[in-house]
Queue: 3 jobs
Job 1
Amino acid sequence: MDWACSDNRNPALGQTIGLPNGIFLACYKFNSQSDTQIWLEANPDFGQRVDTNSDGQACGREDYAGHIECDGEVLLLHKCWSKRNSDETR
């Protein structure tokens, strides 16, 4: 099989929460843990990057780049970085 790139989308598989089904995605692609969970439930065979500890919870506290406590909120790691960077520029 020839691989053009690691993102071999099949439009026939559709989307869940605005992201393509049937490909491997990581936590940084999502806006929230709940969005990630919805996507994982629709794509259980592609969840290795969002459920890195295989506990069934997508982008959980113990998953790589999962949700963390961030200045009094629970956010995905990349959202915390973005929030802190935008707070510093004000």
Job 2
Amino acid sequence: MADAISEVFALFRRCNKYIDETTPWVLAKDEAQKDRLAEVLYNLTESITIGASLLHPFLPETAEKLWHSYRHHCVILMSSISLVCIRMEQK
């Protein structure tokens, strides 16, 4: 059981490293990098969702808090991306 939880947390650590490697905050400032930003955010969305699902059997309350918080931030983020896409199409 400890090995399984360790692997889930290794996934979350890898997500943090991926954020450091891909610097989404830098990508967001460059209109030419919007497709790459969308790819990075998609990869993170999938990884965090999978990690929360794997964590649920061991720490159900923590996983549910993660889902709730993440879903809230994801909706805001996706709204921002949609606004950026709309603005780009209007140009």
Job 3
Amino acid sequence: MEENQPSYGSLADLAVGEQAEVMRISGEATLRKFLESEGLRPGTVVSLLARGAGEALLFLVDENQLQITRGVAEKVKVVIKKKQVVDD
């Protein structure tokens, strides 16, 4: 696959530093409403800040931090926008 081709997946697939645009959110209505109330909705660009112990994932959403589990993150379908390059 070419470097400029978009990559599709879920928020759970992101590496730390990657950005993605939310395409859709699946799951129960209460979960979708909660995520939307936290700023996570189609068209929103998010980035993964950190992976915590166990299932915890920390995202940056509209200048706010949002921590969700991997299971919830798998319900958020995205197109991966950009991979952050980290120099060692």
